[in-house]
Amino acid sequence: MSEKILMKGNEAIAYGAIRCGCDGYFGYPITPQSEIMETLMELQPWESTGMVVLQAESETASINMLYGGAATGKKVMTSSSSPGISLMCEGLSYLAGAELPCLVVNVMRGGPGLGTIQPSQADYFQCVKGGGHGDYRMIVLAPASVQEMYDFVDKAFSLAFKYRIPAMILADGVIGQMMEKVELRAPKPRRSEEQIERECGSWATTGKKPDRERNVITSLALDAPVQEQFNIKLINKHKAIEENEVLYSTYMTDDAEYLIIAYGSMSRIAEAVIDMARSEGYKLGLLRPITLFPFPKKAIDAFTDRVKSILTIELNAGQMVEDVRLVVNGRIPVNFYGRYGGMVPSPDEILTEFKKSIK
Questions:
Q1: What is the pTM assigned to this prediction?
Q2: What is the pLDDT of residues 110-121, one digit of tens each?
Q3: Rounded to an integer, what distance in angstroms lies between the CA atom of residue 116 and that of residue 342?
Q4: Do 81 and 104 form a contact (C-beta atoms < 8 A)?
Q5: Which of 140, 300, 331, 335 has the fewest Cβ atoms surrounding its Cβ within 10 A?
Q6: pLDDT in tens, 214-242
């Protein structure tokens, strides 16, 4: 049986973690995502489900606790904001190199440096292109509502375990702090040790079993040919994800002559822009990437043959627009409008930029 509660996006992450059967959360407070851990502490899931909730001594400690928990086949997660994710990047590379499933939530703030606690989308490069060292990727989901903050926790864990890969929910501070009504689904129980052994026993460190060799978790391969074969394995995994797991949504695109591409909070503002533009006779539509990796390349490619130009809107100096331009490959104009440092544009402001872009 479901129930509906008014809550912040950050709070929805906490509820989503408990109700999807998460085994452990390890984090460190940083604005604008601190309510995730605060809500978990308030709900005390260790009493009801046995879920571990721990404030680590740092972000570096948090990500390495994820490595340990994920190595045993458990559903483990952390959350942070931009500078904290930077501190986790080495650990994220180790997790990817060991093919360990986990969930990382990044509620972005303005930068570079310590920057501001106001919303931003300036971590796109960092998170979508890997972040840490080496050839690796993460599955990256970009929610545009508080409901999706809740829903994507379970979705991210499912994808992470399906492909044995780190997954990330990449939200901006607007989505983390805004309040909306959320439908909470019936909770899933945490998996038993027997279930973990059945599902993850081929790779997880669940204890030496008489019918198999020991499972060893490592990202170290000193033999160059061995490392190359592992990199090829990861590349093939990434290709499979790109083929099978792309998610996006559209708004008013059936007859669109112009297209906006935006994600997260900017996609919500873009919908208002489109309504305003259409009232003035402009046939404008929206494509919202839901997965930033895998990126909806085929969908954008199809629109390139139908529309006259594309306007990409971001809370940064121009990051996702580079991926859009790679897909379009010069066939039509791809314009960009962004605000920085925590400034969020109004629909009127974006509409003005759209009109400039088509002159």
A1: 0.97
A2: 999 999 999 999
A3: 7
A4: no
A5: 331
A6: 899 999 999 999 999 999 999 999 999 99
